[in-house]
Design a protein that fits this description.
By secondary structure, the chain is of the alpha/beta class. It has 13 helices and 13 strands. 37% of the residues lie in helices and 22% in strands. The structure holds magnesium ion (MG).
Length: 384
């Protein structure tokens, strides 16, 4: 049961993504990108895996924290290991991030699932075998035929509805797009999409994250008229006061926090102080599957939903094991990209969606990723 080895394989695979100067993903020419696979092995030889950026689990993080804390510990003692790592964060000079914590803990869940022959959501305690997905668009761009005008959002929304999606979330324009941010343009895009898809598709907006209170209030009131399901992260989340001010004035549910640090602790303050209507947490952002479950259960205890942030195996397994989450975030999506295309390092998608818009929870042991080990072995560029 003891953890024996921790290692990382860094490999390349082709992707058609580029990042703008603010870090937002857009379609781009195909090129090789790097990805890291964390591998934790116990003394019986069972392994667990988690994928993430190399920077998050670079060799310093593995050597100075992961190996020091994990080697020799019982592989099933996730909560103890997580707290041991979290204690190291304070003295790590910012080097051991919540994202690193999340990847390490994720690999432990994967290992436990593989060892016991159970999907992680069943190991936690399953709530459902399928979940409706919302199509989550990329941010607006200046690509003709892409997401550069309200009309292009509307045409893309029609395509998503015909694919089966019963809900769509818009990410609208942000700098460095020349005219962004523009509250009126965001509202125009939302109105065009509502008109295109009709009244029965759930719609959400995740716009510019640094709007002023007054711009956020204007957008929120317009979204109420368009019957949107929620209004996500319109302002700087460090200002809980601004969110409380906004939520008190709007009928549309205000959702957050997504990017605020502080794990489940900062979210507890948001609940206590009536800062939002729907809580938010993603596995990577709050430091792991266990921490994300704590946020979801906190919300449930106060009669609130917790909408899980982001796609991928870890978030999907959390969604499969909680009741108070209405949707799985599938994306990011763009007219120029095919989300159904399986990346080279996997044999199949972890979140296949049927024609009714339901994503089916994985049934294979662990997190459910169908890993193409031969591809990774053949394309590894660094190992530590
Ligand atoms: Mg968001």
């Amino acid at each position: 049961m003891k953890i024996e080895k921790i290692s990382v394989d860094v490999f390349t695979y082709p992707a058609r993504l580029s990042r703008d100067t603010a870090g937002h993903a857009h379609p781009g020419p195909e090129k090789l990108v790097k990805l890291a696979m964390l591998r934790i092995r116990d003394e019986d030889g069972t392994e667990g895996y988690a994928f993430g950026p190399q920077e998050v689990i670079r060799s310093h993080v593995i050597e100075s924290f992961a190996r020091k804390v994990l080697i020799g510990q019982n592989v099933f003692d996730r909560e103890k290991i997580w707290h041991d790592l979290a204690h190291w964060q304070r003295g790590s000079a910012g080097q051991l991030t919540d994202r690193a914590l999340a990847l390490i803990e994720q690999a432990l869940w994967d290992l436990a699932g593989r060892k016991l022959g159970l999907p992680v959501h069943k190991l936690i305690g399953g709530f459902r075998d399928k979940v409706p997905a919302y199509g989550s668009t990329m941010c607006g761009d200046d690509l003709r035929g892409g997401l550069s005008t309200p009309d292009e959002y509307a045409r893309f929304a029609e395509k998503l509805v015909s694919r089966g999606y019963k809900a769509i979330k818009l990410h609208t324009w942000m700098p460095p797009i020349s005219f962004a941010p523009d509250a009126k343009m965001d509202v125009k895009a939302c109105a065009a999409v509502r008109e295109a898809v009709g009244p029965d598709i759930a719609l959400m907006l995740d716009g510019y994250h640094w709007y002023s209170r007054t711009d956020a209030l204007y957008i929120g009131r317009e979204l109420e008229k368009l019957d949107f399901a929620w209004f996500e992260e319109p302002m700087e989340e460090e200002s809980a006061e601004s969110y409380a001010w906004l939520a008190a004035q709007l009928d549309i549910p205000v959702l957050g926090p997504e990017s605020l640090p502080g794990k489940f602790l900062s979210r507890a303050s948001w609940v206590k102080n009536n800062v939002c209507d729907i809580l938010r947490a993603g596995v990577a952002g709050v430091g792991g599957i266990g921490a994300c479950l704590k946020v979801a259960h906190l919300a449930e205890s106060f009669g609130m939903n917790c909408e899980v942030h982001g796609n991928g195996a870890a978030n999907l397994n959390v969604v499969g094991a909680i009741k108070n989450c209405d949707w799985y975030e599938r994306g990011l999506l763009h007219p120029f990209l095919d989300y159904e295309e399986v990346p080279a390092y996997l044999n199949s998608l972890v979140d296949p969606m049927d024609s009714e818009g339901f994503v089916h929870l994985p049934t294979r042991p662990g997190l459910g990723e169908d890993i193409n080990f031969a591809y990774i072995e053949a394309n590894t560029v660094e190992r530590y």
